[in-house]
Amino acid sequence: MTPSPDKPPAFFLGKVQLPVASKQFAEEVLKVHNDYRKKHGVPPLKLCKKLNRGAQQYAEELATTRVLKHSSESANGNCGENLAWASYDQSGKDVADRWYSEIKNYSFQNPGFSSRTGHFTAMVWKNTKKMGVGKASASDGSTFVVARYDPAGNVVNPGYYEENVLPPRK
Fold it and tell me: Which end of the chain has fewer CB atoms surrounding its CB within 10 Å, N or C?
């Protein structure tokens, strides 16, 4: 199969076509992350090829199973991970904006982990340096996006949220 210039390359697994996350999509997700991180006064992230590969492989697995659950790599603490699913083709900006919108549920006066804010806190975690992005479509046209972070954020040790999830600057 020869990729066309307007469509990213894809490969087939059973009856599911899995497009490979384009460099443009990954860079869009990275840019939005870094725009938000700048608001919080934390250093920008860099894309990492190894994290991109792992995120892409996992996005393809999610598109095949159509079950949105965190990977064993993330459960084992080897990386941080944000996941997104939509019934349509998501833009990188849409995905990152949805994750960041959890800031409305975060209490900077009472910092810590919550399942309602974990995507947001992973995005702006000060000590995270690198990220990877993967995206795949399921046979029904829905899309799965995986972002991986290294080192992982959302570390629940005392003081870690205060040090790593800074309020936005005025």
Answer: C
